[in-house]
Amino acid sequence: MSGNTQRMLEVYLQEYEKLKDEQAQRIGFRDNLLYFTLGIFGAVISFAVSNKANYYALLVIPWVCLILGWTYLVNDEKITSIGRYIRLNLVEKIKEQTGNTDIESIFGWEIAHRNDHRRRRRKIEQLIIDQITFVFSGITALIAFWFLAPQPHWTTQVLCWIELVLLIGLGIEIVIYADLAKGR
């Protein structure tokens, strides 16, 4: 292996390490968003049901769902993109530098974990959990508000419809970005 080839291989391996570090950091942040979201739901619901005058607090939940749901989705997409880049681009660059034609021997885990026969089921289950957490719970808060609050002002009703449309949009985006594919 020539000196230039060795240097390029080192660069690619450093790139891999940095990408995996970023991916791990994003995974931790994304997963903690679920716990944080549930904590906020508990606090808001506790406040809202403590007094009839507080029912308007339920209108905070859809915004929490939208903001944290979008942040969750963006991080999840970056995690997926990093994995895709490693599998499709970085593996090819290393393959070119080393002359190794066995793709699965280069960062094999990046490909192997996507070939699990239960992957599709797990990804669908995760999609359902994401929809429940970030869309269904927001819509449930809106429905609860509509049933519990006295006749809200027309501006509040418009706000509710805006929240509903945005939640449906988030739900669609969550489905679009669900990575249900198997393999490389």
Provide mean pLDDT, rounded.
91
Number of domains: 1
Instruction: Classify the helix fraction into a percent range.
Output: over 70%
In whole angstroms, how far apart are the ends? 28 Å
Number of helices: 5
Task: Please indicate the percent range of residues in DSSP E strands (runs of 2 or more).
Answer: under 5%
H/E element sequence: HHHHH
Quick one: biggest sheet? none
Low-confidence runs: none
| Count of extended strands | 0
Rg for CA atoms: 22 Å
Please tell me what the overall shape is.
elongated
Which structural class do the helices and strands define?
mainly alpha
Characterization of the model:
- By secondary structure, the protein is mainly alpha-helical.
- The chain has one domain (3-177).
- 79% of the residues lie in helices and 0% in strands.
- It is built from five helices and no strands.
- Helix 4 runs antiparallel to helix 5 (154-177).
- The longest helix is centred in the N-terminal third of the chain and has 47 residues, at 3-49.
- The radius of gyration is 22 Å and the shape is elongated.
- The two termini are 28 Å apart.
Detail the topology: elements first, then pairings:
Elements: H1 3-49, H2 60-98, H3 108-112, H4 119-148, H5 154-177
Essential attributes:
0% strand; 5 helices; mainly alpha; 184 residues; elongated; single chain
